[in-house]
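quick one before i forget lol
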Amino acid sequence: MPQADVDSFRPVFPAPFEVSMKSITRLLGCSLVALGLLGQTAVAVEKNTPIQFGALTWESGSLITEVLRTLVEKGYGYPTDTLPGSTVSLETALAKNDIQVIAEEWTGRSPVWVKAEADGKVLGLGDIVKGATEGWWVPEYVIKGDAAKGIKPAAPDLKSVADLARYKDVFKDPEAPGKGRFLNSPSGWTSEIVNTQKLKAYGLADSFVNFRTGSGAALDAEVASSIRRGKPVLFYYWSPTPLLGKYKLIKLDEPAFDAEAWKTLTDPGNPDPRGTSSLAATLSIGVSAEFSKQYPELVSVFEQVDFPIDLLNRTLGEMSEKHEDASVAAARFLKQHPEVWKAWLPADVAAKVSSSL
């Protein structure tokens, strides 16, 4: 077709159409900007939603929780809150991102944690308290006596859990004549399941009452009361805690750690548990996978957290003696020991925390 004919067929749009095209272009541009702003707003809303910490009921767990909450709130400006629950229920909630942080997670112990970690739903960050331990303990005077207090050895040959059956009368249960009493963890703790299975594995289930205290504080009170009165007491305990630093205690020997036997102890339904020392303790900060994606800056901080165990035990001891709330003890720790926690944070964030104390 000749050029003239082509030109004659070229459509000529009226001015209103040109205006409409420009309007559409502007509208699309505005829409894209609006969507971008909406996305930013959604992120902002998410970051303004409180980060949920598990409300841990033992002293070290509650103290570490409050220290971390302060760093997150004052250093980064993120709101936080706590949600109560047993160890197992909190681990389940963490896997679902119903909570985002468990400040003191004894990693690798609970089947709930092991599965959630294998499925990529939770992560254990750092090694926050080196030298932590757990086991079955008795006061030193039970084995060695205490001449200053007029206490004679009640179980001089007691060295291991294998010796307990013949000393059940030493640890007699006031409510169950003919049986000893073993002070277990509160129900709902992973260690309570392990200890219950250990009683079976060591052949002690029929000779000792498996006494479960209502809380970590109740366990402390029961043990401390017995020690103050110079009475024999057999109990499960762990560190970091003020109790192990306050009293002279002896940890009973158990069989060397066996990974396969350990599996039978963490499974409450296993009918034939086998005895073994507990899994070597690794204390980490448990976080949900979603949290790790949303707060990479906090993940970096949590990976650096390291509480010197002797200092932590002293802090817990003071907290216990003063009957302080964990938030009060945490504030004092942060004020008195900046050389510890400032090493975990970028300098500008540490400065914000310092100015808030």
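fyi The longest helix spans residues 15-48.
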